[in-house]
Amino acid sequence: MAISLPSSSSPFSTLSLSRKPLPFSCSLPKSPIKTKKFNARIIAYKAGLKSKQRIQKINEEVSPHRAVSAVRLLRIEQGGAFADLLSDKGRGAAENEMAYVERTLGFRTRDLEDRDLRLVTDIVGGAVRWRRLLDHLILSLCHEERTFREMEPLLLQILRIGFFEIVKLAMPPYAVVDENVRLAKVALRPGAGNMVNGILRKLVLLKETNSLPLPKIEGDARAQARALAVIHSHPVWMVRRWTNFLGQEEAIKLMNWNNGDPRFCLRVNTSRGYTRTDLVEKLEMLKVPHEPSPCMDDFVRVQTGLQTVIQAGLLREGVCSVQDESAGLVVSVVDPQPGETIIDCCAAPGGKTLYMASRLRGQGMVVAIDVNKGRLRILKETSKLHNLDGAITAIHSDLRLYSEKTNLKFDKVLLDAPCSGLGVLSKICDGIEA
Ligand SMILES: C[S@@+](CC[C@H](N)C(=O)[O-])C[C@H]1O[C@@H](n2cnc3c(N)ncnc32)[C@H](O)[C@@H]1O
Q: Is Transferase one of the keywords UniProt gives this record (predicted)?
């Protein structure tokens, strides 16, 4: 007869396999009422165990934001996760993240505070954006190429974090060395910590003597493009294309712009009854530096503090949207007037649709077409959040098929066809490599 053992996580298995007494008296339940009580006690016991394990496994030695950054970088490289989406703070996101950290590193860190989260966003975004340069430097400082090529993934992420902090964030170098050595020791083993120590200390010396091993811009056009690609961390094909079109000087300016701090704009949602003054007051309360857009009445520029705006719930509550002034200017060209019917031919995720609909002031309609169902769903959800679902008709269709089967006439047409996205690389930290 086959005997199946209960799963090892159940208290029964503890009882039957190890014969340790349970921390409460336990007899087989006879009535349904007793079963309920019995189950409740088991749940309480399990919860107690879990919280005990949690407390035991929280590691106080390692800086939490570095541990989380290393795990996020692994998820991006090995699991194809998008850096920007990992920063989303949905329900349960923090708990999920900690579960990932525990599974990957074997310990938990304390929960992240807002300041830690901002550091994680900066470090992960920077390490992804500067990966080409960082890897070139790490490779140059390894004894042999094989050491770099065969490096275990977690160790490589820890080195990338350390290199980014020293080279690009100019953080106090010996603190960076100590913290990353500790992370490597605890998450991997003492030898890994020694290796991080050796390589980061070499880097610190080279940085202090201004002699980082950067490639020289020399040789033919291809060789120069390869060197520029490393120094500015862009793909060689992009460097070659821009150098051909714009010349080297302008191409370098463009790459510096892409690698600089992005400026974001917020558009106040007038459809929810908010004014720009309301938005400015909220930003002042949150201490987010801002300035009103000089060219668009509904827009406010923010250079830093977007995470604070997100965490304060201003987007979730529909007070404002993140939208570039350039997108707003497109809508200004369309110049929607109350009573008009406008077709938005490639509408999702809907930034321009929503702004056009809000400018109809409750009279008229925007017909929003998109071939991508998922993106169109975002448009529908946001239009509800902004009280604009009555002014938008969302249609899931390929525009080419829709245009054949409809004979509707519109006052205005917006066609915002798919583009390369090369104009917004500064806003998407993994955009350059993607
Ligand atoms: C640049 S995005 C549009 C951005 C949008 N206007 C906004 O402001 O949020 C281009 C969109 O065109 C859609 N698209 C591409 N080919 C299409 C087609 N044949 N018919 C309809 N939509 C299409 C894509 O799914 C994508 O959502």
A: yes
Distance 417 CA to ligand 1 centre (A): 6
pLDDT of res. 73: 94
3-state secondary structure of 156: helix
Q: Is the pLDDT of residue 27 over 50?
A: no
Helix boundaries (H) for 232-296: 236-246, 248-259, 276-285
Same domain, 157 and 71: yes
Of the candidates 193, 177, 173, 194, which has an alpha carbon nearest to the alpha carbon of residue 185?
Answer: 193
Q: Specify the pLDDT at position 143.
A: 84
* Per-residue tokens: 11: 């208290």
Ligand 1, atom 13, residue with closest C-alpha: 346
Domain containing 246 equals 221-259
Residue with the larger pLDDT of the pair 108 and 18? 108
- Please check whether residue 99 is in contact with residue 47, taking contact to mean a CB–CB distance below 8 angstroms: no
* Domain final position from 10, 42, 57: 57
What ipTM was estimated for this complex? Answer: 0.99
In this structure, are 247 and 308 located in the same domain?
A: no
Q: Are residues 198 and 229 in the same domain?
A: no
CATH number, residue 96: 1.10.940.10
Pocket test for ligand 1, best of 370, 373, 396 (most atoms within 8 A of CB): 370
Instruction: Give the pLDDT of residue 16.
Output: 30
pLDDT at 406: 87
Ligand 1 neighbour 351 (Cβ under 6 A): yes
pLDDT tens for residues 241-292? 999 999 999 999 999 999 988 889 999 999 999 999 999 999 999 999 999 9
> Has residue 13 been placed in a domain?
no
- 128: in domain: yes
- Torsion angle of alpha carbons 197, 200, 201, 202, nearest 10°? 130
What is the tens place of the pLDDT at every residue in 149-180? 999 999 999 999 999 999 999 999 999 999 99
Question: Mean pLDDT score of the chain, rounded to an integer?
Answer: 85
Which atom of ligand 1 is least distant from the CA of 330? 8
Cα separation, 393 vs 186, whole angstroms: 55
Could you tell me if 124 and 201 lie in one domain?
yes
Does one domain contain both 97 and 162? yes
